[in-house]
Amino acid sequence: MIGRIAGRVEYKGEDHVLIDVRGVGYIVYCSDRTMAALPGPGEAAALFTDLLVREDLLQLFGFLSLVEKEWHRLLMSVQGVGAKASLAILGTLGPDGVSRAIALGDINAVKAAKGIGPKTAQRVVLELKDKAPVVMAMGAAVAPSPADDLGEVIEVATPKARSAPSPRAAPSAQAEALSALGNLGYGPGEAAGAVAQAAGDLPDAQTPDLIRAALKLLAPKA
């Protein structure tokens, strides 16, 4: 499986980018957010990728982080959610937004993505709710540094690479807060919900602030 590519951007389409890797051009489909974050033609870029294989089709989908890639794979496991729908959800919410929406059971947030109806949004939330804490704990892997990787043609993803952040990736405040609450004895589900709500209320908060806010939400109500 092609798990990551690094090269130079040849051109950017509406929903895909062509990346030249040592003379071979790879068409990679991306969400709106990822497309907006990619540099222009002639500049270096690197993406984590997921390869969709069908009898008559091979398509690469690209992501800036392993967390985004993991959410794509999980979203596509839900009945009625294909690659296009998954990218629509990720493009609307971003990986952290998907984590929050699913942890909080926010069907309306998922439904806001283009082409996602209420029944599909409900299935996404219900089927993936137990998996939200696991993905949140992965942390937010930053985009790979393309300048360091132009000499690499393709890196094949291994099971370890798919289940853990890149060694160069710093864990997100949400992941650290989730880990801290787990160490305090809170269950994954309730911890994820509290962290997600706190992150929504305090989008720029660092780990200590998120932990304090989540603990307030978890405190017994008088």
From TrEMBL:
Main location: cytoplasm
Places the protein is found: Cytoplasm
CDD domains according to UniProt: UBA_RuvA_C
Any one Gene Ontology BP term: DNA repair
GO MF term set: ATP binding; four-way junction DNA binding; four-way junction helicase activity
SUPFAM superfamilies on file: DNA helicase RuvA subunit, C-terminal domain (SSF46929), Nucleic acid-binding proteins (SSF50249), RuvA domain 2-like (SSF47781)
Classification via InterPro entries: DNA_helicase_Holl-junc_RuvA_I, Hlx-hairpin-Hlx_DNA-bd_motif, NA-bd_OB-fold, RuvA, RuvA_2-like, RuvA_C, RuvA_C_sf
Keyword DNA repair appears in the UniProt entry: yes
Keywords: ATP-binding, Cytoplasm, DNA damage, DNA recombination, DNA repair, DNA-binding, Helicase, Hydrolase, Nucleotide-binding
Residue segments, region Domain I: 1-64
One Pfam assignment: RuvA_N
Domain (Helix-hairpin-helix DNA-binding motif class) ranges: 73-92, 108-127
Family, per entry: Belongs to the RuvA family.
The protein's assembly and partners: Homotetramer. Forms an RuvA(8)-RuvB(12)-Holliday junction (HJ) complex. HJ DNA is sandwiched between 2 RuvA tetramers; dsDNA enters through RuvA and exits via RuvB. An RuvB hexamer assembles on each DNA strand where it exits the tetramer. Each RuvB hexamer is contacted by two RuvA subunits (via domain III) on 2 adjacent RuvB subunits; this complex drives branch migration. In the full resolvosome a probable DNA-RuvA(4)-RuvB(12)-RuvC(2) complex forms which resolves the HJ.
Function: The RuvA-RuvB-RuvC complex processes Holliday junction (HJ) DNA during genetic recombination and DNA repair, while the RuvA-RuvB complex plays an important role in the rescue of blocked DNA replication forks via replication fork reversal (RFR). RuvA specifically binds to HJ cruciform DNA, conferring on it an open structure. The RuvB hexamer acts as an ATP-dependent pump, pulling dsDNA into and through the RuvAB complex. HJ branch migration allows RuvC to scan DNA until it finds its consensus sequence, where it cleaves and resolves the cruciform DNA.
Domains: entry comment: Has three domains with a flexible linker between the domains II and III and assumes an 'L' shape. Domain III is highly mobile and contacts RuvB.
Name of the protein this chain belongs to: Holliday junction branch migration complex subunit RuvA
